[in-house]
Amino acid sequence: MDEKKITLDMEKRKCPLCNTESGRIIYAECGFSLRACVDCSFIYMDPIPTFLALQKIYDDKCDFSDEVMKRAIKGLEDWGRELFYDRVQALKKYKDKGKVLDVGCNFGFFLKMLENAGYEVYGTDISEPVVRYAQKNMGLKVINSTICEAKFPAEYFDIVTMFDVLEHLSDPFSDIAEVYRILKKGGLFLLTVPNSGVHLLKSKIVSLLPFLKYYKGNFTGTPFKANEMGLPYHINHFTPKTIRKMLMKAGFKKIDFDIAKDRKYDGRIIRGCLRKLYGFITRVAFKFFGLYIASELSVCATKE
């Protein structure tokens, strides 16, 4: 499908962190632009697709026919098993029991692992087909809603997880503030987001050395040209500094960063070795120099 045939209703936005309009354009791809706020340094897409347009591009991306669903479920089970297990083990280091909410829970595989580990689990997701699967096939307490629309009681959860979600939201601060409201005192907020500083650097290197380009063609199943910054799907771009600022603005005081464990790779030996080398370098840089050069930010914030 030719991306030029796609027309999206767009709307202007202010900086999601400080609510000003002082952003300067630092990156452009496929007709979309990223701005860096002059006041707080937050990087955000502006303009963005309207809420209905965002729903449409996600619906168009996802084919929920029975056959495609089966392949997606099987792929996520196989690919995610190690990842979800590691996340459960990481969570156990902080709290080994309690009520857990997973925002953007997808088919519920992570929640099921948590339930089997003894946690009381809940989930939200805006995709009706995946919620239906989690309810029917997994027997989970999952609702088809955003976290703000769900209206959970205040101080209800011991842990809230939000993996690879905040980068997609038109108002990420509101969701973080809602997490703070529904967490008990001493509760944990575990989240991951792409590290935009690293991805911007990669995009600059690729522009100078095109043969290093990892993304080619279009994003799978979409009309949009693949790009390092994930536009138009990733509309917020965090650095360690700006995710910390947003969490503190919501009320969190204790904020810790970590480096995710290396993943196994499916037979692509050279790529796998290079990624393991990169993982080793990121851990050394973080442990000994306090530098966060991993491509993903892994954060744990505590409500005190």
Description of the structure:
This is Class I SAM-dependent methyltransferase. It comes from Candidatus Aquitaenariimonas noxiae. By secondary structure, the chain is α/β, with parallel strands linked by helices. The protein has one domain: Vaccinia Virus protein VP39 (Rossmann fold). Helix content is 38%, strand content 22%. It contains nine helices and 13 strands. The chain has helices spanning 51-61, 66-94, 109-116, 128-136, 147-150, 172-182, 196-208, 240-250, 269-289; strands at residues 10-11, 23-29, 32-37, 43-45, 48-49, 99-103, 120-125, 142-144, 157-163, 183-194, 236-237, 254-258, 296-302. The strands form three sheets. The chain has a seven-stranded mixed sheet with strand order 8-7-6-9-10-13-12, with helices on both faces. α3 links the parallel β6 and β7. The chain is globular and about 50 Å long. It starts with 9 loop residues before the first strand and ends with a strand. Mean pLDDT is 85; it is low at 1-5.
List keywords for this structure.
13 strands; single chain; Rossmann fold; seven-stranded mixed beta sheet; alpha/beta; 9 helices; 304 residues; four-stranded antiparallel beta sheet
Topology:
Blueprint (H helix, E strand, L loop, with lengths): L9 E2 L11 E7 L2 E6 L5 E3 L2 E2 L1 H11 L4 H29 L4 E5 L5 H8 L3 E6 L2 H9 L5 E3 L2 H4 L6 E7 L8 H11 E12 L1 H13 L27 E2 L2 H11 L3 E5 L10 H21 L6 E7 L2
Parallel strand pairs: 6-7, 6-9, 7-8, 9-10
Antiparallel strand pairs: 1-5, 2-3, 3-4, 4-11, 10-13, 12-13
Helix pairs in contact: 2-3, 6-8
